[in-house]
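S1.2 Input.
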Amino acid sequence: LDLEQEATAVDNRRVETDAVKLFCGKMAKDAADAAMQVMGGYGYVGEYQVERLWRDAKLLEIGGGTNESHHKNILRDLSAPGRAVIP
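S1.3 Output.
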């Protein structure tokens, strides 16, 4: 019984991890896009931090797995037969 509970806990953590990566990657990219919009053309200049933040935010979207892969993983894990509800 302990092994089954541990497997369910691992599945829950995987869903939560994918959800956090998906949410944080999108929020970071949206914030960087807004900062880039405020800075205008200066946002593309390497001497300003906005340019680095925008690059890093884009890397979060694709570096930790694409948004599509996170959606796919969440859907697969939540629709698995016998899936327990996340507390």
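S1.4 Remarks. Residues 2-39 form the longest helix (38 residues).
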